[in-house]
Amino acid sequence: MLLDPGMDLTLRPMKYPHFFDRFKDAIKNTWTVDEVDLHADLADLARLTPAEQHLVSRLVAFFATGDTIVANNLVLNLYQHVNSPEGRLYLSRQLFEEAVHVQFYLNLLDTYVPDSDERAAAFAAVDNIPSIARKAEFCFTWIDSVFDLRRLETKADRRAFLLNVICFAACIEGLFFYGAFAYVYFLRSRGVLQGLASGTNWVFRDESMHMAFAFDVVDQVRAEEPDLFDAEMERQVRDMLAEAVECEVQFAEDLLEQGVSGLSPGDMREYLQHVADRRLQVLGIEPMYGSRNPFAFMELQDVQELSNFFERRVSAYQVGVTGSVTFDDDF
């Protein structure tokens, strides 16, 4: 089974071909940081209000280390326990994408924050900015929850690992990052920071695929070991997502504390609850909040890129693809 201890090395016959399909789809989505021009944003930065400048400063500080944390969990925890060579191919590709994201955000800081002392402060945000430190602590808690597991010998071990997978897919990549994307697209809807939005489009595609693969892993384990998914595990997932929402709401209150016209902490809470409910639905768990998406700028985001977070064929991610696009999906 997928979480059996050991390391299967046999790609033929292929036991999990859908993981290999994920790997091939990710290759089609290759991009480089050199394709993103951030320098065009400098004039916009100078025109932002003090409240908007505070928002961008906090957002950049979160970006400084967010993807590095995800990459560490991938290497330290996911790779050694997903016992599928096809799955490890995808995880290898994901690690490359996390490295590209880290480079993108490094360029972002170098461009937006020319002062070396200010850049150093941004990289130290996980220690010095309470709202970012709380999110980092949440991440590190779940990394540490399975760090000492070298083999998944028991059902308790496999449940702990699944909770780690679900946390990083649903809460960190699927909620923390999607909250950050909402700020970027809000600014774009105001006609500013188009370079940041352009790079974020690529990151958004990658993160959608990372979530899709992680939820594929969860679905596969559910098919092989359905008794792992009991009422207690469902409760833990709901509690985990509820805590993640509160972490991200605290971050929203920090970003918006000076009053950004057109964006309120209340709207951000509603949006985050809406996203959390979407993640629960994918996991086959009843939604907790029943909140709507209050942001028209998210619903109008490029449909070809975001047409379905969890589609089996991610043809929308391939440059030059042809075909039909629907306009009624819920984001």
From TrEMBL:
Keywords: Deoxyribonucleotide synthesis, Iron, Membrane, Metal-binding, Oxidoreductase, Transmembrane, Transmembrane helix. Signal peptide: none annotated. SUPFAM superfamilies: Ferritin-like (SSF47240). The active site is at Y105. Its cofactor is Fe cation. Fe cation 2 binds at E98, E173, E207, H210. GO terms for biological process: deoxyribonucleotide biosynthetic process. Binds 2 iron ions per subunit. Provides the precursors necessary for DNA synthesis. Catalyzes the biosynthesis of deoxyribonucleotides from the corresponding ribonucleotides. This is Ribonucleoside-diphosphate reductase subunit beta. It comes from Actinoplanes siamensis. The lineage of its organism: Bacteria, Bacillati, Actinomycetota, Actinomycetes, Micromonosporales. The gene is nrdB.
